[in-house]
């Protein structure tokens, strides 16, 4: 991992672009790496952190007559397994809404359930609960919790109101929209002011909320930096470059 260096982005943030395409920065004193997959690596504890996987969202929609290709869980698992293989973390932490609803675990294909269980071999899984999966998994290995302390960081599903030093959360599915003379792009993104961070949704079928939406108002101590997920790297995008939907 690239050592942190003072490299200015818009709005005077300091970060380091990693050879893997990620962005490393100090978050409330903890060294973290924003991965282009949308996962976050907390370095000191070798913890891989993902938010809002929404397993079995496709099957939930199918039950209501809205048919989508039923491969969202498999695609999300493919990307999660790739991150675990690349980083060999000691811990994998799910920031809530890992399942789209309380019956989603029952709808998992046997092969997908086995793949999830296999992630626990040689490491710890920690499932934080969210508003979609308030009970957590019942049959999969790992610990279930509402919040988790990780060094100077506090991990939870839904961000607390007002600036929160050291908070890591998900729930809001942040996206960055950037318009230039060549057109407009909209990408899932990390959102951080260096004190707290909101992770992008990791799930294949999870949507996104524009970072300039009112739902983000008042959450950051200063205008946030977006770590937008590109094809080959995470792009640091300052607030003034972001546009509303």
Report what the structure shows:
The protein is α/β, with parallel strands linked by helices and 245 residues long. The chain has a single domain, classed as Purple Acid Phosphatase, chain A, domain 2 (4-Layer Sandwich). Helices cover 15% and strands 29% of the residues. The strands form two sheets. Strands 9, 10, 11, 12, 13, 14, 15, 16 and 17 form a nine-stranded mixed sheet that branches. It has an eight-stranded mixed sheet with strand order 1-2-3-4-5-6-7-8, covered by helices on one side. Strand 13 and strand 14 form a beta hairpin. The longest helix has 16 residues. The N and C termini lie far apart (35 Å). The N terminus is likely disordered.
Summarize the entry for a quick read.
With 245 residues, the protein is α/β, with parallel strands linked by helices. The chain has four helices and 17 strands. The protein has one domain (10-155, 164-241): Purple Acid Phosphatase, chain A, domain 2.
**Within the CATH hierarchy, at the fold level, what is the topology?**
Purple Acid Phosphatase, chain A, domain 2
- Compute the average pLDDT: 89
Sheet having the most strands: 9 strands, mixed
Q: What is the CATH C level class, in words?
A: Alpha Beta
Write the layout of secondary structure elements.
Elements: E1 16-17, E2 23-27, E3 30-34, E4 40-42, E5 47-50, H1 57-63, H2 72-87, E6 91-94, H3 104-107, H4 110-118, E7 124-128, E8 143-145, E9 148-150, E10 153-155, E11 167-169, E12 174-180, E13 183-192, E14 197-198, E15 209-210, E16 225-229, E17 234-237
């Amino acid at each position: 991992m690239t050592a942190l260096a003072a490299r200015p982005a818009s709005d005077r943030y300091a970060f380091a672009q990693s050879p893997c395409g990620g962005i490393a920065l100090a978050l409330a004193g903890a060294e973290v790496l924003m991965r282009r997959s949308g996962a976050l690596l907390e370095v000191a504890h070798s913890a891989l952190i993902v938010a809002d996987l929404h397993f079995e969202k496709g099957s939930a929609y199918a039950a209501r007559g809205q048919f989508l290709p039923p491969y969202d869980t498999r695609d999300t698992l493919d990307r999660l397994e790739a991150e675990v293989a690349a980083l060999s973390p000691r811990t994998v932490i799910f920031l809530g809404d890992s399942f789209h609803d309380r019956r989603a675990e029952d709808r998992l294909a046997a092969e997908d359930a086995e793949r999830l269980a296999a992630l626990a071999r040689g490491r710890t899984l920690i499932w934080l609960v969210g508003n979609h999966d308030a009970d957590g998994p019942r049959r999969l290995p790992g610990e279930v919790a509402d919040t988790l302390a990780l060094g100077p960081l506090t991990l939870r599903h839904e961000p607390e109101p007002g600036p929160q030093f050291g908070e890591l959360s998900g729930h809001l599915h942040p996206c960055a929209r950037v318009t230039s003379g060549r057109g407009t792009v909209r990408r899932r993104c990390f959102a951080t002011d260096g004190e707290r961070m909101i992770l992008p949704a990791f799930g294949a079928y999870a949507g996104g909320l524009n970072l300039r939406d009112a739902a983000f108002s008042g959450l950051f101590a200063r205008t946030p930096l977006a770590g937008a997920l590109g094809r080959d790297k995470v792009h640091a995008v300052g607030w003034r470059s972001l546009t509303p939907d």
